[in-house]
Amino acid sequence: MAGEAVEGQEPAEATDVVMGEVAGDSPAAAQALQRLLLSNAPGKLSLAGAYAFGYGELGLAGQEGRAPYWYEELDPLDTVVLGAVWPQRFRDEFEFANVRDAWLRLLRGTDLGMGIQKFVREVLSLSAELQLPVDDAEVMLALAARLEQAGLDDFRVPRQSLPGASLGETRVVRGPDEDLAFPEPPADVELDIDEFWMEEPEDLMFQETPRDILRLGLHRLAEAGLPVEDEPACLLVALYAALLAKPGERHELLGEHAGAWALSFEPESPLAPVLDVLFLAPERELPVDRVLAHLFALPAFTAPIPDEALRWTSSPGLALPALAFELGFDQVHTRHLLVTPGELDFAGTQARVRLVVLREENEKGSGKREDEWDSRLEAVREKARRKVRKKKASSLLSQQRAAHAVERLWNADGSSQVRWSSHAPEGRAMSDGLVAQRDFFRERFGREPGPDDPVFFDDEADEPTPMTVESWQKAFSEAAEGAGVDPSLILAMRDLGYIVTEANQGAFTRAEVITYLRAVRRHRKGAEG
Are 334 and 139 in contact (CB under 8 A)? Predict the structure, then answer.
């Protein structure tokens, strides 16, 4: 699972570093950390002890100048996982996040799983009390004493339940079994393959099966000049790119991200057999049509893609909000984003892009790249990366922008802006609406709007005050209902924070479109039932 042990490090060293780092700022927290570090040991941990060792690893790595760039993104739940494997190291943030999620899944329904839930509640409670993000340094420091008080040092982790022992040989770490037998193709698979290649992408835009999403992705890669009909390494990249990649995502990282995404699924997922075939096909040097033949033998290939595939999870900072929402919390305040249940997919995209920026900065500072993944993952990504690097940046993952009235422009940190074309009817309507809103501002406040004034404001406030998300959604819903719009569309927008239309669908990833369509269907079914 993890890499080699960190040589020369003992619990006493972690204790000394932690005490030296935090004693001056918070003697109580330093004493709590010291107690936890001395009463626990690698392989003999409580949940509170795992957090203390994770916190100590962050201090040691920073002091020794060996902290990988992704340590900056760790939150308290991530820190528990880091301490649970100490003194082992993870290869990269993808292995870390996938192991974290697999371990949390393994603990569900157990006493330790209940302890993890209690841990998350303590984190959210402390964050609210201090009015600071859950991953703020002050929260993470104060948490040590809080865990003792909450009794989380009593939740012992048996050695066999630690990530290294329970996950060391599983799919999430080692990848698919090299000797995995692919299913036998159906008798009439040639007809399925011919139809697959003949379909045009415009016929696939609202389809939801891995088959259709893969076809859409291969079409885009073919537009970029990649040999999609000859190179099996393009298949996994194409499926990921069409489903989750944002327009403009760095091409040379698509294979790496596709591999991490593929390994994030538990073996029991209906999509896992499809991903295993795509993962292993380049190593076996199978012709693309032969790979497709095996895929058509899998029911999941032509069934709606599971919901779990629609969100990126293979980055630090994403498990704690997801678990908090399961426990009934309605928002989680992080350093980067106020996350709500409907924004988990956006939080995943933002985290992925933000880590790319951090890595680039790290590589510029060190003058070298970090070690590559092991050779098995390299077989999937490197073939595609060599070809992709040769293509112009404007061609890959082309969204045919001129065809859409709306496009989303992504920033380097993962945030985005939406731009409406002034040549499209929707864009002209938006422009007219903004002019009307400016006139309303003059009428309401008796002056011209300034650069710091909100465009959309609370019309009952005495001073220009931005509309809240709730008031904006209420106004939108009332206007839509007055115009006779299907209420299921509005309810889906309320859940997710965005609405997908024929005009703006190009501004969203395929995963976002599918998520929205499913929310609409869910509300329609609820209204009928």
Answer: no
